[in-house]
Amino acid sequence: MHPLNDMGQLLNLSAYQSRARSLLDPAIWQYLEHGASEEISLRANRTAFNNWDIPTRPLTNVNGGHTRQTLYGQELAHPILLAPIAYQRLFHEQGESASALAACAQGGQLLVSSLASQPLEYIAETSDSNLWFQLYWQGERERTLRLLRRAEAAGYCAIVFTIDAPVKQATLVLPAHIHSVNLESIPPYSAIKSDQSQVFDGWMAHAPTWDDVSWLRQQTQLPLILKGIIHPDDADTALKLGCDGIIVSNHGGRVLDGTPASLTMLPIISQRIAGQIPILFDSGIRNGRDIFKALALGASAVLIGRPYIWGLASAGAMGVAHILRLMRDELEMTMALSGCATLSDINSSKLFSNPSNQ
Ligand code: FNR
C-alpha cells in the first residue's frame, strides 16, 4: 500500500518509527539511529529525562493557553524546531524541501544542514518563511565565508554554527545520486606520514577554533547561534564572543561516547547564562513531556532530530507535519495538566527531581 494511503495507522511516534524502519534500507536505518561507540551517551540522552517528574496541578485556569514563542524576531506557533539532519534524500525523494514545507505549514522552523542533499536556494524557495542555515566549517575561512554568503543571499535568517563534530566518524557510503550538493570540493588534505597522527595532524588541523568563532561573528549581521555546547565554560565563551544563542546538544549521542546527556547539562548551563541569550536544546526528545522538561530546565525552544525523519521516511512532508502536530498536542496536554497556560509559565518549579526513577 502507498504510505500516504494508510497514514490512519500512524497514530503515534513509535508507529512512525516502525514504519520508517520497515521502509528504509537497513544501512540507512543504522546511519539514522546509531550513536557513537557503545551508545552510552545515546541511551543517557533518554534516561536523563526520567530524573524529572511533572506533578499535575488541577483546577488551574489555563483558558486562552497557547504555545507561541518568538525567537530572533520570528513568531513561531510552537517551540519545536527541526534539527539539521544531513542528506535527507536518503529518507525520502523530496528530502529537505519536504521538511521545509512541513515546518512552514506547522508554524515552526527548519535548520537546513550544510550537508543538505538539495540546493540550499531550492529548499529556501519551498518555504514561505525564512529558514535557518546550519553551517559546518569548510576547512578554512574563505570557503566557509562563501557558503555563509550563499545562505545569506538565499534569505536564510539565522546561522547555526555546529562546533561539536570536527572529526569524521566512520559513516554511511552514500548512494551515487545523493551527495552534499552545496559544498565545494575540498582538495584532499596532504597525506599523513606514518609517524603522524590522523587526528591531530589530519582532521583537527582543519577544524575551527574559538578564534574562528570570533572571526565568524564579525562576518555576519544575522543571529549567530552555536550548536553543540555541553560545557558551561563554552557557553560562557560563546556569550563573551557575542553569539546570539547556543544549542545545548551532544549531537544526539553521535560524536563522543561518554559525553554527558544534554539534559543533564541544561540546568547548569542555564544557570550560567542567566537569561542573557536564548538557549535551545536537543538530543533525546521523543514526546511532549520531554519538551516540557527541557523548557522547564531553561530552554527557550527545542530541536527534534530522528523523530521527524521517521515522519519524512514514512510519508514525506505529511509525515513530518504530523510528527510536529503530535508533539505539539502532547506539549499542550502536559502544559494544561501541569497548570501552565503559556511557555513563560513553565519553569523549574513545575518539576520534581526524582533520580530514583532510573
Ligand atoms: C544529525 N545531526 C546533525 N547536526 C548538524 O549540526 N548537522 C548535520 O548535518 C547533522 N546531521 C545529522 C544526521 C543524522 C542522521 C542525525 C541523527 C543527526 C545532529 C542533529 O542536528 C541533532 O543534534 C540530533 O539529531 C538531536 O538528537 P535526536 O533528537 O535525534 O535524539
From TrEMBL:
FMN binds at residues 84-86, 113, 134, 162, 227, 249, 282-286, 305-306. The active site is at H251 (proton acceptor). Glyoxylate binds at Y31, Y136, H251, R254. Its cofactor is FMN. InterPro entries: Aldolase_TIM, Alpha-hydoxy_acid_DH_FMN, FMN-dep_DH, FMN_HAD. Residues 5-356 form the FMN hydroxy acid dehydrogenase domain. It holds the Pfam family FMN_dh. Keywords: Flavoprotein, FMN, Oxidoreductase. GO terms for molecular function: FMN binding; oxidoreductase activity, acting on CH-OH group of donors. Belongs to the FMN-dependent alpha-hydroxy acid dehydrogenase family. This is Alpha-hydroxy-acid oxidizing enzyme.
